[in-house]
User: Fold this.
Amino acid sequence: MRPAHSPHGLPPWRRAVLKVGSSLLAADGAGLSTRYALGIAEFIAAAHRAGREIVLVSSGAVAAGRALVRSQPETAHGLAARQALAAIGQTSVVALWQRFFDRPVAQVLLTHDDLRNRRRYLNARATLRELLGLGALPVVNENDTVAVDELKLGDNDNLAAIVAALVDADVLMIATDIDGLFTANPRTHSDAVPVEDVPVITPAVIAMAGGAGSTVGTGGMATKVEAAGKAAAAGIPTLLFNGTRADVLRDLSVDRLCGTRFRAEGGRLHARKYWLRHTPGNGGRICVDAGAVRALHGAGASLLPSGVVAVDGDFARGDVADIVDAEGRTIARGLCQYGAVEIRRVAGRKSREIEALLGYSYGETIVHRDDLVVLEGAVSA
Assistant:
């Protein structure tokens, strides 16, 4: 049977976050299954062969744990019970994915609090980027065994959108068990019409989404639309498609989507730079020399310790600080890889000396170019 949505081209992408829900991994509530996971793994492998990167956000831990503990009542949904089941099932989720790949599969457990805290945000991003650099497949899930507020409707859909922004993904892909967004729930409305392109998420679009879907997962179409909205705000488009269909996954491997595309609100870089430009700071300032000014403005470089002259204020790793020239003019703003005390200790020194001076290293840059915005008009060309 042909998918309800017609094939259409994908935006160009090199790095994607792919979210796979419990409905695809634990079909019929009987524990983890390769029934649909195999097709998804073949798509991931094809992406890897094409030189692309995938970060997988995978559900299924609670369902896997429930299948392994037969004494657990099927109706037990209390927080403590679900946390225990998640702890039991996490290893099964990673093992499921590892069986499909020769490359290493890495488990990364996060909570929303990890991503709200700027220092932990930077640590999580650095870890994920390093895993991709090593050729591993990161498998991300919420740290359900310690989360309190996160085990609720739509957790992994929204987590996937946050992870997409975290790793600067070109696209967010959400694999579900229906063909995409419809004007109404196609399971209960025979006259539902497929929606193939969503330029902007409006109240009318939100109204099209129904409530929770399967009894296995925690999210429904509403949370997928919500996640698409978060990704769009970060400049990342979202693709919603049926991960149970081998033909849809084969089309996806050749950059054709049978599903719904949610467009981004401007470019990814624009969204990030806008946030850096306008997010409140704490008064911290990093004074840099003329060479650093030229490198930041003319070459789009990162800020290195060798260009730092002085540091004003008290701020921590992950805070936003103003970067000023010798006259005190703010020329840029950025997320700091080191706190004020640390930057004072390495100011004027070479990047390779950081670890010797501090006893540890978060990297060679004080502010990475991806975390920095040059203020227009602050520096002459």
User: Anything to note?
Assistant: Residues 150-154, 211-218 have pLDDT under 50 and may be disordered. The radius of gyration is 23 Å. The domain at 279-374 is CATH 2.30.130.10 (Archaeosine Trna-guanine Transglycosylase; Chain: A, domain 4).
